[in-house]
Design brief:
By secondary structure, the protein is mainly β. It has a single domain, classed as Immunoglobulin-like (Sandwich). The chain contains no helices and 9 strands. The strands form 2 sheets. A 6-stranded mixed β-sheet has the order 1-2-9-8-4-5, with no helix packed on it. Strands 3-7-6 form a 3-stranded antiparallel β-sheet, with no helix packed on it. A hairpin with a 4-residue loop joins strand 6 and strand 7. It is globular, with a radius of gyration of 17 Å.
């Protein structure tokens, strides 16, 4: 399973190619997700049992951000933010929302809240406050976890983790 976002660039992070979107502080996004077969037909995510969606995030500081082509991003000198923001269960996940809007047609969404930076709720999210500064950019890797019952054995769950990268900048 792979996830494709409209208007996204690609980046390679720790050897993993992923979708990447730029967002600005104070902005929230609701990203549509459609689960489809290779022929484009929607997947009924109630078959054989309801699929479930979950999210979590990790935060990184980025020294440099460059755009060698229109569709790629190069990030330099990444470092894991320490301590990590925590909205419960030692992860930033409570404010992220992934849910189905129409599960029988495989339609879902991922909501990225406006408070993903700025420490607005005292959750330790980084404060981004320099306009267009690569020295003060934050990379947020949001992981969308999709769990579904195995076709081969109903007592087993298949779990897919899809990483999404968001470069957060001051507007």
């Amino acid at each position: 399973m792979s996830l494709l976002l409209n208007g996204a660039k690609t980046m390679t992070f720790a050897g993993t190619e992923m979708q990447c979107l730029e967002i600005y502080t104070g902005e929230a996004y609701t990203l549509p997700i459609n689960f489809t077969y290779s022929n484009g037909a929607p997947i009924n995510c109630t078959q054989p049992n309801n699929w479930t969606l979950a999210t979590s995030a990790k935060f990184y500081n980025v020294d440099t951000v460059t755009y060698p082509t229109a569709s790629t991003v190069d990030l330099g000198n990444l470092s894991l933010l320490s301590p990590q923001p925590n909205t419960g269960a030692n992860t930033y996940s409570v404010n992220l929302v992934a849910n189905f809007s129409n599960i029988s047609l495989g339609e879902a969404y991922l909501f990225v809240p406006a408070d993903i930076t700025g420490n607005t709720n005292g959750d330790g999210t980084p404060i981004v406050n320099l306009a267009n500064s690569g020295a003060n950019s934050t990379l947020v890797i949001i992981t969308l976890t999709v769990t579904r019952e195995s076709d081969a054995n109903a007592s087993l769950d298949n779990v897919n983790r899809e990483p999404l990268g968001f470069i957060v900048r001051y507007q």
